[in-house]
Amino acid sequence: MSHPILSPFVEIERADWARLAPRTPNPLTEAEVRRLRGLGDRLELREVAEVYLPLSRLVSLYQESAARLHRETTAFLGAKAEPTPFVIGVAGSVAVGKSTTARLLQELLRRWEGSPKVDLITTDGFLHPNRVLEERGLMGRKGFPESYDRRALLGFVSRVKSGEAEVRAPVYSHLTYDILPDDEIVVRRPDILIVEGLNVLQPPPSSAHLAVSDLFDFSIYVDARTSAIREWYVERFFALKAGAFQDPLSYFHRFADLTDSQARAYAQEVWDSINGPNLVEHIVPTRSRADLVLRKAEDHTIRSVLLRKV
Ligand SMILES: Nc1ncnc2c1ncn2[C@@H]1O[C@H](COP(=O)(O)OP(=O)(O)O)[C@@H](O)[C@H]1O
Ligand SMILES: CC(C)(COP(=O)(O)O)[C@@H](O)C(=O)NCCC(=O)O
Fold first, then answer.
1. 220, 28 contact by CB (below 8 A)
2. Is 200 in the pocket of ligand 1 (CB under 6 A)?
3. Is 96 annotated to bind ligand?
4. Where's the Phosphoribulokinase/uridine kinase domain (predicted)?
5. Residue to mutate (ligand 1; options 34, 42, 99; most atoms within 8 A of CB)
């Protein structure tokens, strides 16, 4: 007799999750929510109150518990407790809305007791520069695990986690479609570090190696049906065509004047040859490694929350 594989998660429907909303007033204004909302996302104040406030409360519970365990363990060992940053991973497909989730979480966590310092980095800064991707024949594989300098990303997060005073990360530009050679982000001993990117939940290449996910204290996977994400990607391409691509400095400026049907065909082609295969082959298989999954409906709202059984 075959046994069904047990899910590692309990699924909490949206209405039940919303009931967990702490009785604190929504700390964000309409204007702040608009600023945090990514292109194509339809984030509303109600979504913040019903989904993200309980989420940020849950994350801060995990953080308090990790800090307590750290303090008690170091006291047990007779060592001096140096607080270490709590590291949160946010994973999911291109165009699923990871950056909105990560920015919102950053703002909400900053507003919890003690006003923790919350920094956010995106893993696109650790993509190899186009020059290297071209040399390796990887320009059509941007976002696949091999397109990143995974060792540098792991080194960065390890150094932040070990409490280094200043740790620097490279910066990627969607405008130039490349790493900015003269730019960097400096992270200075945050209480919480959010690491957002497609591949942050990848397992290590072998059991002898570490992956960045080994350093996460909590991880979130933003999920939706692949067909819905493909449509969101195409819609966003249209919004970018009317906006960012109009800038003559944009790498995509040449697409600014495509007709609607040419633009749709081009966006679908990029999805079907790069982002779709990456989602199916590399990103979806990491979903079960997350501590929490936010499952979105076709209209971008969160339909349910899956929480790892503790
Ligand atoms: N070609 C582009 N030009 C300008 N901005 C872009 C471009 N592609 C994506 N972006 C922006 O980059 C951010 C990250 O996008 P993405 O990696 O697809 O993650 P997600 O949609 O899950 O946040 C989004 O805010 C998106 O609007
Ligand atoms: C820059 C990205 C790889 C995302 O990187 P992330 O920050 O998630 O590591 C992605 O948004 C991207 O540009 N993919 C290339 C294919 C495309 O243009 O959609």
1. no
2. no
3. yes
4. 87-226
5. 99
Would you say the CB of residue 91 lies under 6 angstroms from ligand 2?
Answer: no
Q: Which residues pair with 111 in a beta bridge?
A: none
* pLDDT computed for residue 4 by the predictor: 66
Please tell me if the CB atom of residue 95 comes closer than 6 angstroms to any atom of ligand 1: yes
ipTM of the complex: 0.91
Task: Let me know: does 289 contact 218? Beta carbons within 8 Å.
Answer: no
Residues 11-36 pLDDT 10s: 999 999 988 876 677 888 888 888 88
pLDDT at position 135 over 70 = yes
CA 301 to each of CA 10, 103, 225, 297: distance values in angstroms, whole numbers, following the listed order: 19, 16, 13, 6
Per-residue pLDDT tens over the stretch 149-172: 999 999 999 999 999 999 999 999
Amino acid at 41: D
Ligand-binding annotation for 97, yes or no, is: yes
Entry pTM: 0.94
Residues paired with 86 in a beta bridge: 192
Q: Is 174 in the pocket of ligand 1 (CB under 6 A)?
A: yes
Whether the CB of 124 sits within 6 Å of ligand 2: yes
CATH homologous superfamily of 9-308 equals P-loop containing nucleotide triphosphate hydrolases (3.40.50.300)
- Closest Cα to residue 9, out of 300, 295, 216, 280? 295
Atom of ligand 1 nearest to the CA of 124: 17
Chain-centroid distance of CA 136 in Å reads 26
